[in-house]
Design brief:
The chain is built from ten helices and nine strands. The strands form two sheets. It has a six-stranded mixed beta sheet with strand order 5-6-7-3-8-9, sandwiched between helices. Strands 2-1-4 form a three-stranded antiparallel beta sheet, covered by helices on one side. Strand 8 and strand 9 form a beta hairpin. It is 38% helix and 26% strand.
Length: 262
C-alpha cells in the first residue's frame, strides 16, 4: 500500500533581526537557515492498517503527510502508494486519498455545506448514485442533519470538523490522512467520530494515518504507532509496545520524548 524509503526534505528559511535597519539590510543581504525537516525516513504501511504518526511540534509529521499526499516533493528518497509516486501522479493519486487537516478547511466559507459537497462531487467525478449513498451514510453516522444547510462560517469548530470528515470521504478513498480530527469536539462527538473511523476501516478496509497530539485518539484507534522526532523515525511498533508499566498514555509519550531528547 505505502512504501516510503529514505525520504529527505530540507527547507531554506530567510531570517533577520527586528528593526527597520535590519529590514533594509535584508534587502541586499539575506541570511538563510536550513531546516532539515526529514532525515532518512523509511516505513511501510499495509492496506487496512490504522497507524498513529506521532511526535512533537516540528518533528516532521506535516512534511511527511504533505509528501504522501503529493503536495511536496522530497529532496531525495522514494515513495510509492498503490504503485504510484504521489508528486508525479497527482491527479490519479488524489482520487484515492482523503485528507482532513484540523486547521484548514475544504468547505466554502460562505455557502451551505451541501453546496461544498456538490462541488466535491464534481471535482472527484463521483457518480450520482455513489454520491447519494455516501452522503446519506455520512449524514446519518456523523449526525450532520441541519448542518448541511448551514454556511461553514456559522458552524462551531466541532460541527465543522464533522463536516470536514464527511467531505473527505465522499469519494470513498482507499487512504485517509487525519490531522487532529477531533480538535474542538466535545466528549460525545469525539466518541462518535472515533467509532465512525473504526467502522469505515473495518467495512471498507480504508487505510488510516492519524497525526494528533491527543493520545486518547491514538489509543482508541491506532493498532500501530510510528514516533518521529527531529526528522527521523525513532520508534515503530504496536501501541502496547510503547506503554510502560501502569503509566497513563500522556505520561508514557512524554517520557518517550524525554528519552529521545525531542
Amino acid at each position: 500500500m505505502i512504501e516510503v524509503s529514505h525520504l529527505r526534505k530540507t527547507f531554506r528559511i530567510a531570517k533577520r533581526n527586528a528593526g527597520f535597519s535590519q529590514a533594509a539590510k535584508a534587502l541586499f543581504h539575506k541570511e538563510y537557515e536550513e531546516i532539515h525537516a526529514l532525515e532518512d525516513v523509511s516505513f511501510t504501511i499495509k492496506e487496512g492498517e490504522m497507524v498513529g504518526y506521532i511526535g512533537p511540534n516540528g518533528a516532521g509529521k506535516s512534511s511527511t503527510i504533505k509528501i504522501l499526499s503529493g503536495v511536496l516533493t522530497p529532496d531525495s528518497g522514494t515513495c510509492f502508494i498503490n504503485g504510484r509516486i504521489p508528486w508525479k501522479d497527482r491527479v490519479a493519486h488524489v482520487r484515492e486519498i482523503g485528507v482532513v487537516f484540523g486547521q484548514r478547511s475544504q468547505l466554502w466559507w460562505d455557502v451551505p455545506v451541501i453546496d461544498s459537497m456538490e462541488l466535491l462531487k464534481e471535482i472527484y467525478s463521483i457518480p450520482q448514485d455513489v454520491y447519494e449513498g455516501s452522503l446519506s451514510q455520512l449524514t446519518e453516522l456523523l449526525d450532520l442533519g441541519e448542518l448541511l444547510r448551514t454556511p461553514a462560517r456559522q458552524l462551531s469548530l466541532g460541527q465543522r470538523m464533522r463536516c470536514e470528515i464527511a467531505a473527505s470521504l465522499l469519494h470513498r478513498p482507499k487512504l485517509l490522512f487525519l490531522d487532529e480530527p477531533t480538535i474542538g469536539l466535545d466528549a460525545v462527538s469525539k466518541l462518535a467520530v472515533r467509532k465512525f473511523i473504526r467502522q469505515i476501516n473495518q467495512e471498507r478496509r480504508t487505510t488510516v494515518i492519524l497525526t494528533t497530539h491527543d493520545m486518547q485518539d491514538i489509543e482508541a484507534l491506532a493498532s500501530r504507532v510510528i514516533l518521529i522526532g527531529k526528522g527521523r523515525i525513532l520508534l515503530d511498533g504496536s501501541f502496547q509496545d510503547i506503554l510502560q508499566g501502569g503509566e497513563k498514555v500522556d505520561e508514557t509519550v512524554a517520557q518517550l520524548y524525554k528519552q529521545y531528547n525531542i
